Amino acid sequence: MCKIILDAGHGINTPGKRSPDGRFREYKFNRIIVNAIAEHLRLRGYDVEILTPEDTDIPLPDRVDRANRMTCQPGLPIQKVAVISIHANAAGNGSKWMKARGWCAYTCKGHTLSDELATCLYKAARKHLPGQRIRTDYTDGDPDFEAQFYLLRNTYAAAVLTENLFYDNPDDLAFLESTEGQKAIVALHVEGIVDFLEHVRV
Questions:
Q1: Over its length of 202 residues, how does the chain's per-residue pLDDT go in tens digits?
Q2: What CATH topology corresponds to 3-199?
């Protein structure tokens, strides 16, 4: 018995979070990716819940409460729950194009099961994003970055936030907007999540 909880970052009412030319809106991209990941995982028979079906931004405490209620179910081992928050990155304030590029993932501080989930996602990212920069931080022995993001700190289950390239870099943005790019980002999440759930010990 497994459960996958997918969070689409931000909302239509979140200030900024768009490309310098205004054509890319992060909230919309996040929901396209989340819905596609959910569809693929459900076709494989997995129990998937979307944490943020609304287009509006949901406060972080509410997101965490939802995730933890979904996690605490009779007969569901917490080790068999994966929480993934989907985002796209930006290096600036949206006023101009920037040079930063790449894909990365974040976990909370310390060594937890989240690190294993992130490592599975990194493995899949290297496979599905050839030619794209994979950003890493090996200071604690694994590739993910660590941060005190509220969602990552307060969910009961393994939780990872992915930053899927930079929408204020024109090359990354072209990939994000392409059918090929979106399929690759969906595929890496599906493969990484399945790899984690199939191999985690209870």
A1: 899 999 999 999 999 999 999 999 999 999 999 999 999 999 999 999 999 999 999 999 999 999 999 999 999 999 999 999 999 999 999 999 999 999 999 999 999 999 999 999 999 999 999 999 999 999 999 999 999 999 999 999 999 999 999 999 999 999 999 999 999 999 999 999 999 999 887 6
A2: Aminopeptidase (3.40.630)
Q: CA-CA distance, 186 to 44, in Å (whole number)? A: 14
What are the percentages of helix, strand and coil residues in the chain, rounded to 5? 40, 20, 40
Burial of 154 (0-12, 13-18, 19+ CB in 10 A): middle
- Chain centroid to CA 109: 17
The number of beta carbons lying within 10 Å of the beta carbon of residue 153 is 15
CA distances from residue 71 to 50, 56, 115, 117, 157 in whole angstroms, order as listed? 13, 23, 18, 16, 7
Two tokens, residue 124: 């899949």
